[in-house]
Amino acid sequence: MPHEHNHSHCHDEGHDHDHDHDTNDLGPQDSLYSYIDRSNVVALNANNPGEIVIKPWHERTDEGKSLESDADDQMIIRVPFTGSVRLRSVLLKTGPGDRTPSKVQLFANQENMDFDDIEDKTPTQELDVAQGREVGEYAVKTAKFSNVSSLTLFFPEGQGADTIQIYYLGFLGHWTERKNNPVITVYETQANIADHPKVQGTEGNFSSPQS
């Protein structure tokens, strides 16, 4: 009988936690806050550094600190992660009212983009931002954000006011350490190429006695 009892636990061995479940299940345990390289977050055209709106989960509704665009209603926030992230959704608290961005464009793994670069690039995904006092959760196409080391958010325009304002920016998903597999694959490919001349040389040895 003990074997049957153990058997009931076998579903725990699977990667159930890795499968995409309904975003309604997401919560503090899925927050990527601790995996953001916060000292290297950059906000462009902002009235102060961007790190202050990337807050711990329990401060997501706090309005004590915010980020406002400076010269116009555009802003870029660059967010590097400390590993590889599979992004599930972006959390935003913005506004109020006309100071809400009309949309946000997400760019995965595009380092050091500024306003000049961004005009020529196609976003990985674009999301419309709704007005409201709550923290909005915006689900992304996980397949396009399955191996993200940095995320650039571009807010191209507001909803009427001269500036946009952001109170909170957060991310939900899964974090893994950066994998070394791609590097190993490259070495294997190079090794295979190096092997071919040896094979040809061996054939030459076989034919030499007949010449």
TrEMBL record:
It comes from the Eukaryota. It holds the Pfam family PITH. Residues 1-30 are annotated as: Disordered. GO terms for cellular component: cytoplasm; nucleus. Residues 1-24 have a biased composition (Basic and acidic residues). PROSITE patterns: PITH. Residues 21-191 form the PITH domain. SUPFAM superfamilies: Galactose-binding domain-like. Signal peptide: none annotated. InterPro entries: Galactose-bd-like_sf, PITH1-like, PITH_dom, PITH_dom_sf. PANTHER family: AD039 HT014 THIOREDOXIN FAMILY TRP26, PITH DOMAIN-CONTAINING PROTEIN 1. Belongs to the PITHD1 family. This is DUF1000-domain-containing protein. It comes from Macrolepiota fuliginosa MF-IS2.
